[in-house]
Design goal:
The protein is an alpha/beta fold. It contains twelve helices and 14 strands.
Length: about 475
């Protein structure tokens, strides 16, 4: 059976102009609920509570071992949140006072802000308008003598173009930290995101694709980086021998064993075991649930293939996938819709029944924290307080990042491949886009032909 857009609804006047809404009044949004919690999760959490083992690490170590195997990395280290995992990953990579990291400007703040806590500066790079990930062509010229790491973010589930990034990093002897908070399970040319750079950190908080409450995970194949991360924030892990808990005397490279028993970072990054118990259950079901999300999101975007003004945010090449498609976005092509901008487009779609917002995360390079914040109370902004080059950038410096509100919009994060739930939303988008494209054509500002969009016949689970 074909899944098709509702042609009748599409032909009506726009709701914003007084026409009927494309979406049913009684549309039920509960299918978007996440994460999926079953008796199995509840039982696992209850066991931790009843054994009063919330602050132990036995279950967490099992979770780490299973997670490491699933992602295909040698070491996994659970943390209290993703921000903590990013902080210790940066420290492990050698980031310290007066150093620099490179990070895309459009991402959640935790991809970048931990660098400030280490006394380092962030040199923000622009993003690519197609992937919304760091633009590989905007990295190399930012590398200076104090650059220690490039943080890449597989943004909204879309894998970064890792081949050129790894090539640049290797040539300059700079570490690559993958922030996988949006892309658990995503593949880049057949390889799992999080296993390509030197080290990866990710959030597992309630809203993310892999969700366990509050939690984070660090993964790496590099034993030294792993041990440095432990030394920074996991005091209880130092000094006991096991594969996931190396003996301090095995730490040979940096004299870390002297600090055994106390965390060098002065922080405590241990994960609560109610979360790791839930994580073990979530992991068992993750691949199946991710595949269902992929099928659902591909159904949605296949329906909209060819509709003017909007594009799917998904990779074209086989073997590269969106994982569980967290923070799903669409791409806006204003030139095809004449006058209207993305905000106006979202307003019109919202009137049809799906409350849609333009943009994604706001560009970080313009935020006052990365210009003025004096975290160490030295009387000067931390970005320049330790002798760094001044890499602060004002308006106009990263044009694609600064245009984010006009090149991207949010779309529902479908968890179930149920056409009855997906078609009405796709119809609302198509109705608005086709209306404005027709206007543009009437006005003679757009010469293209209008496609016959919205018929899904092929296997949409291929991406
Ligand atoms: C959520 C998120 C983080 C931070 O993780 P927390 O678990 O919330 O601390 C880091 N990076 C990105 C890209 C995120 O989306």
């Amino acid at each position: 059976m074909n899944t098709v857009l509702d042609k009748q609804a599409i032909s009506q006047p726009l709701a914003i102009n007084g026409g009927p809404k494309a979406m049913p009044q009684d549309y039920d949004w509960s299918h978007l609920n996440w994460p999926i919690i079953t008796d199995e999760d509840e039982q696992a959490v209850l066991e931790v509570l009843r054994s009063r083992s919330m602050s132990a690490t036995d279950i967490t170590k099992l979770f780490e071992a299973e997670f490491a195997q699933w992602i295909g990395a040698e070491y996994a280290l659970a943390c209290c949140n993703g921000t903590a995992a990013l902080l210790e990953a940066m420290w492990a990579c050698g980031v310290g006072a007066g150093d620099e990291i490179i990070c895309p400007s459009v991402t959640y703040w935790a991809s970048a802000a931990p660098a400030l806590q280490l006394g380092a500066a962030v040199n923000f790079a622009d993003i690519s308008p197609k992937s919304l990930c760091i633009d590989p062509n905007d990295i190399e010229h930012r590398i200076g003598p104090r650059t220690k790491a490039i943080v890449v973010v597989h943004y909204c589930g879309h894998p970064c173009d890792m081949d050129p990034i790894m090539d640049i990093a290797r040539r300059h002897n700079v570490k690559v930290i993958e922030d996988v908070s949006h892309a658990h399970g995503a593949l880049y040319k057949g390889r799992k995101c999080g296993t390509i750079g030197d080290i990866a950190a990710m959030s597992l908080m309630t809203g993310k694709g892999f969700a366990i409450g509050e939690g984070g995970m660090l993964v790496t194949n590099n034993r030294s980086l792993y041990e440095h991360a432990i030394a920074y924030g996991h005091y209880e892990r130092t000094g006991a021998a096991s594969r996931f808990n190396p003996a301090d005397k095995q730490i040979t490279d940096d004299g870390l064993s002297r600090f055994c028993g106390l965390p060098i970072g002065g922080v405590k990054h241990r994960l609560i075991q109610t979360a790791s118990a839930m994580g073990r259950v979530q992991l068992k079901h993750f691949d199946a649930r991710m595949r269902e999300i992929q099928a659902a999101m591909n159904t949605f975007w296949d329906l909209l293939e060819g509709v003017p003004g909007i594009r799917a945010h998904r990779p074209a090449d086989k073997g590269t996938t969106m994982g569980c498609w967290y923070y799903a976005r669409g791409l806006f092509a204003q030139s095809e819709l004449d006058e209207i901008d993305c905000a106006k487009f979202c307003e019109a779609v919202s009137a049809e029944g799906y409350k849609m917002l333009p943009g994604a995360n706001k560009p970080l390079h313009l935020h006052p924290v990365f210009h003025e914040a004096d975290i160490f109370r030295q009387g000067k902004p931390t970005m320049v307080a330790f002798g760094q080059r001044d890499v602060r950038q004002g308006p106009g410096s990263l044009p694609v990042a600064e245009s984010i509100n006009n090149i991207a919009f949010d779309v529902p994060w479908f968890k179930h491949n149920n056409p009855a739930a997906i078609v009405p939303v796709a119809t609302a988008l198509a109705k608005v886009a086709m209306h404005f494209a027709r206007q543009a054509r009437k006005a003679g500002t757009h010469k293209g032909t209008l496609p016959v969009a919205g018929v899904v016949t092929r296997d949409s689970a291929s991406r």
